[in-house]
## 1
Amino acid sequence: MAHAATSPALYGLLAEFDSAQALLDAAKQVHAAGYTKADAFSPLPIHGLAEALGFRERRISPLVLCGGIVGALAGYGLEYWTQVIAYPMNIGGRPFHSWVAFIPPAFETTILFSAFTAGLSMLAMNGLPQPYHPVFNAERFARASQDAYFLVIEAADPRFDVEQTGAFLAGLHAREVVTLDE
Amino acid sequence: MEGSQYPKGDFREPLPLIGPGHSFRSITDKLTSVVLTKHTPKAWFATVAVGFLLFNGFLIAVTYLLFKGIGIWGTNIPVGWAFPIINFVWWIGIGHAGTLISAILLLFKQDWRTSINRFAEAMTLFAVMCAAIFPVIHTGRPWLAAYWLFPYPNAMTIWPNFRSPLIWDVFAVSTYGLVSALFWYIGLVPDMATFRDTAKHPLLKKFYGVLSLGWRGSARHWARYEHAYLLLAGLSTPLVLSVHTVVSFDFAVGIVPGWHATIFPPYFVAGAIYDGFAMVLTLAIPLRKMYHLEDFITMRHIENMAKVMLATGLVCIYGYACEAFFGWYSGNEYERFLVANRTYFGPYAWSYWVLILCNFLVPQMMWSKRMRRNVWALFTAAMFVNVGMWLERFVIIVTSLHRDFLPSSWEMYRPTIWDFSTFFGTVGLFVTLMFVFVRVLPMISVFEMRTLAPDARVKSSEGGAH
């Protein structure tokens, strides 16, 4: 990426659309045309947009379940180890292993671990933080966080061809199609 | 959102969630212009000045505390738990409305949460900070509190006692603080991208750019984002209910008359939400005026919050009635004495009746639609509830403790100037943090407001607008 070349490599083609509806329709057609390395950008979540591009991932839920189980075991294990093994104390004649009293802290660690798994795995899978991305090279792209809709087809896509893909995007009622440097 | 089920002009028709004629552009411009401007309202300076002054009183009080110890407070034996725990429970309770709005209302698909969730979450975060101060400083030696409160391998090889509700509280409150901060920050990330792209000054662009983590609004990112956000809401919901439940265990697990009651967990949770909504109104009414946000925080929001207050307030009153009934029905002489002493002949009976005035009588005016739509009346009611909920904890703690089991151990409790300056100091800290937040970060979620605008509508195979 960062090697010294005379001109930067082509990352892909960026098309801008006028509305959420136009973007969603275009995304469906891009997917139908067989493009796999395409992405859409919008200032708000649009339901069905990721699915229209063929995105069907549900990996966060099982990870959160694992995080919760680890949290429960860690919390309960900490309590068992400290109260029964490391520092057994007779307090009011209660058993060392007072499992009822151990539930509230173990519940809290379950929530703590699963919530942080949810938040951090979402960021990790999205590859964030990521300060640089080729789409930021497009001048209009600053509006993607305000009121504009974009669709990109990457040059790495096996079906990509600058001329044909450009014409295809223009045919989807794109307002403008620009090339993106790597 | 597509049109109402009621005929035009019907009295059941809800007020709109957003003022007419808003587009993505106008929402973004309005909400970013509150922050990205050189103009700061005069009222902002006045409020922060008062808050910061009170906070300095807090710093003085805590410095003196660290020199002299907790003898400077009115806390005594038998009233060994006083202002610090009253204030702790009050602050933690205030935080609960933020999580209720951001998590529980999200799960119930209440779209009116959208314009109030961000600053309610900030309120939660700052309220938890204020609450956390008290358990730390009430030890008098906060530098030792680390091994009293947290299980970490220390040189003395001792560990906290997990059979005590006080250590449950440490786990509940620290989890609550951390998860609230995470939830709040994750919600901010897409808005930070908007700020990065609209800010003019290069340093501001950097500042918001770093906070945005390079968010670019990719469809895949949004899909994972919404998934994770929903899971966080689902996890925060049992969490918020557990936090005040555990706080109530601090009392209910003890044998002190007036504390040892099974109604405590639900009654504490309802009270927390009651007070939290009162605090949201206390903040929302002046802020929407100060920043002209009437189009975003509409009368619909204000009215809905009033309704939630009315409902949770009545649950609270049910709790008071249960407490009195339990005392009488137990047949236990200490329990019966406590109820009579608390409500009738005790030296603190006045506080009980002021509490009933604040939490029961005054808020009943919210049955009237005219009152619910009158911001002055609502602000007044919210203030009464803020005071009333503080008094509730005062009544529970002080009237239960000041008459110990033996009359020889009876003692009055009188808070000192240091108790008050510490308490009002945290109010000052809260106000200061809240107003600084409003000045540097979007107090209303920009991207979620966009979902309410007409531009956001799409027809997809799954059907319906977002």
## 2
Amino acid sequence: MFLELFKILKKPRGFIVATLSFLVIFAGSVLLPSIGLISRIIGSNATFSEKTQVVWSLVGSIQTNFTTLSAITTVVTALLFGIIFAIIVSKVVEQKELLQKNGITTGTLGLVSGVFGIGCAACGSLLISTLGLGGILTMLPFRGQEFGILGVLLLFYSLYLLLKKNKDMQVCEVNN
Amino acid sequence: MNKNTLEKISLPISIVVAGAFIALAVIFTNGTGSKTSDPIAQNQPSLENVSKITKKDNVLGDPKAPITIVEYSDYECPFCKRFHDTMNQVMDKYGESGEVAWVYRHFPLDTLHPVKARAEAVVSECVAEIGGNDAFWQFSNRFFELTPSNNQTDLDVVIPQIIGELGLSQSEIDSCVESGRYDKEINDQITEAQQTGGRGTPWSIIILPDGTKYPINGAQPYEAIESLIELGLK
């Protein structure tokens, strides 16, 4: 099962897709709380290098604006998403088989759950409090970071389903 | 719809759903997303709702400094504790030279840190009233040093300890707290934090010499604050 994964990531296309997806999801998660600042900086009359410097400096918030648990779940979510996306792209391009619905759906749920977990960053989960559900955080032992953990688990399950499907023999199904 | 069709469309649907959620997250978290000509009149959160510095404010540095950082903070928030250190670092570099003023306003999150965060905010205001501006900052620095955060502070131990260290009278502080004279001011600051777009703590606004305002959401690293200050000083 993992040999197949290794084969996909060993190819330049698989490696590049996985790396780029990881970077996009990671940067998106870390920079999401600062989207208001970033949009204002981009629209300002600062030079390109000044704008880049400000945005780049915000990436450091993974150390200051996240708990250890939320930083770990953010990195793992981005990593798993990158791997899953590389597998999906590989299968689409090679057209080896039809994509497995369950794997993709679980992956999507994992990503969505991870998004809800983002922002345990500052006090008050970003998306949850935005939706006016801040009160539910007080009932959760990890103050909303459960969503990030759930996301990671779903992504792991999605990866398992995709790799398992890949391992199964290709047969024509009986159409009932 | 047969199984094959379902399987074929599941990929694009899943991608669209994921994209929609991410887009929603971006839209919901972008305070500047919907621009209106008069945000105050239309009750939209806007950085323009930040009030001017008055004598009531707790200010570190020169109040007439070209750059002002207004922070809305919660004494029980672990990220505020972290950001307090960052701001002290900022003031070490830019405070002495009179380039930056740091304004501390209260934004106790009652749902996350019931009773304690608000009580600590009131005590800090009483410390400022009785001991002056310097005492307020000494109180805040020492409190963030001692608090374990997340509503775990033992108020009966930590507060008297700091009050004693500052050489202030506990009974005077108690009587100030009981008078309730800072309750409205703290409520007003909470409302202002929300009206400027704050949805969590720490929430800060950096105001540049030309009046440009930038939102700082959460405990952003020193380098980010420094690069924004340098942008304003150029």
